[in-house]
Amino acid sequence: GSGADNDLYINQAVVFIEDAIQYRSINHRVDSKSLWLYRWYYSRTCQWMLSLTITMILALAFVEEPSSLTATSDVRYRLPPWNPPCGLTESLELLCLLVFVADVAVKSYLIGWKEFWKNKWLLAYIVTLLVSLADCIVSLSFSCTESFRIRRILRPFFLLQNSSMMKKTLKSINRTLPEMASVLLLLAVHLSLFTMFAMLLFAPTKDNQQDKEWVVYFRSLPDSLTSLLVLLTAANNPDVMVPAYSKNRAYAIFFILFTVLGNLFLMNLLTAIIYNQFRGYLLKSVQSSLFRRRLGIRAAFEVLSSPREAPACAQQSCVSARALQQVLQKVVMDSRCKQTIMRSLKMCPCDQLSAAQFQKLFEELDKEAIKQHPPSPEYRSHFMQKLQFAFGHPYFGYLGNVVALANIISICVVLVMDADKQPSERDDFFLGAINCFFILCYLLEMLLKIIAMGLRRYLSYPSNRFDGLLTLILLILEIATFALYGFPHPGWRPEFLGLLSLWDMVRLGNMLIVFRFLRIIPNMKFMALVVTTLLDLVKNLRAFAGILVVVFYAFAITGIILFKGAVIPLGNTRMLSKRDLLLGSAALLSLQSSIQHVEWGEKNVLSRCPALLYLLSVHLICRWAKIYFIAWWLISSVIWVNLFVALLLENFIHKWDRRCHRASLSDIEYQRTVELMFRDVLEEPTEEELMEKLQQHPHLQLGR
């Protein structure tokens, strides 16, 4: 019995430490069977299967009717898309829903019945599944002929509920909305006042020829409000002011005042408020994550320390180093962290660990070691040592950058000279010879660097891997070009052979060479800082990107439902009623009259024909369609872009401060994870807070 209890305590500690690593809640069942199920559920295999299921159910929208599997989206030229037979996508969706049913069942069991009723996300999960299953059954009963499928709009919820960071980010955004509402209300007042001014300023007169501004943009209150709202996005600037400006230059003052107050002041004020408020709520979220990590580590300490320990621990709780070693052997964690903790544990002079010592060992989880590069090879030959010094010196890298710049300039010169020539008149000799010469230079540079640094050290640098990969691709492409078309020579214009023409292969090589020029970024400190900031956002702000996918997906499905069949191919007017044709003709005449006095009007209209066709078709459906596009603009452009700017600023300022104020040696050896971007301003939870939270655990009974 004692051996079984010890195994249970060890397994509990293992799960609690894994919860701390992943910032998971520890409020779940802790008996032996539940712990096995819990670890299986959060294993890589199970989570990978769940992620694959979510991807599959979201991807169904690309093949369901109306299918997107066409080469072009232009309704005038595309062929009828392939529509799957009834029951195919529905069967795949039912399979995915069954996986989600199993998922919610396991989650509900693991947290317990009492905690289940407190979890709003699980309750919403069950409601979403019930509605989706019912809707899928309805589709099958109607032989897939129904036009509205509510389950398609609900699909992004499965992605949202599967990520704790996405839920935290969404909660932070939700708490930021009241502060955003005050500025949005001020923006609405700004729009309303200028709308009334515009209707008074551009009111119709006796001279109909001078009323183009009123006819096109300010004919009614909805049209006026829409015109100024679009002007706020700068999408119709300067088109909206051209008729009035043609009549009197003084009318430009109205549009300048509107743009300055709206775009320069109110929109930037909204960015500042979102940055300030969202940063505070994000800080609280990160503080909560830190508390979860410390709580998981403390829970592991508590289950390992009990009266069964030696009498020396009677006065103070402690854990034996041997028990912790058994736990670490079972924990799934980063090998570097595990090795560092094991090394620190072996160096510890005492055999018993206090709570503070136990917690300090796991502070290694908050750090990410900078990768140590392998050493360079040691040559005995004096000549090889000189070569190693010369080609391993930073100046050799600068020389490679100069060569890459010369290659870019030479390509630009040749492209400018051949810009006006027809493909039959173009001579690819010079460009082919230039590419051949520089590719040999890149290959020589790569080989010399490998000799100087050694292959392992060379590959340990991302910039070298980037260079080497592109150099090998260019070399293979050049060899294929020579095999198909021979060596460059004057009049090098052979016929099309193989998969790509000569010009296509040369052009592909030039694009790779231009892309290779990005190697200069690490050598420019400020540019490198900007790029690393963007890369950190891409790598670590997956929760933010996930919510963005949810928003895009939901609006895309809603748009399909609302505007299905709205875009009518040119020449197909049989689907329009007589009133629709009159409205369309009036809209086109209004547009034509608005550009009569503009020299660039003809090119502008021709370049916007596809967009005009689409907007005209939507206009013919219903004026209420504006609500959809305004909602999309508010969420995607106003709120979401400003949130992204806020996170970008926070990440950049954090990196800039670290660059300008180099801290202690530990900051040079270690780099904080992005989850703890605010680590310097976070507060460590007290022992009383941790113990109070542990005492409230619904399934864990502590011995003290």
UniProtKB/TrEMBL annotation:
Membrane topology field: Multi-pass membrane protein
Major localisation: membrane
InterPro entries: Ion_trans_dom, TPC2, Volt_channel_dom_sf
Subcellular localization(s) per the UniProt record: Late endosome membrane; Lysosome membrane
GO BP: calcium-mediated signaling; endocytosis involved in viral entry into host cell
Family: Belongs to the calcium channel alpha-1 subunit (TC 1.A.1.11) family. Two pore calcium channel subfamily.
Protein name: Two pore channel protein 2
Organism in which the protein naturally occurs: Grallaria varia
Organism lineage: Eukaryota, Metazoa, Chordata, Craniata, Vertebrata
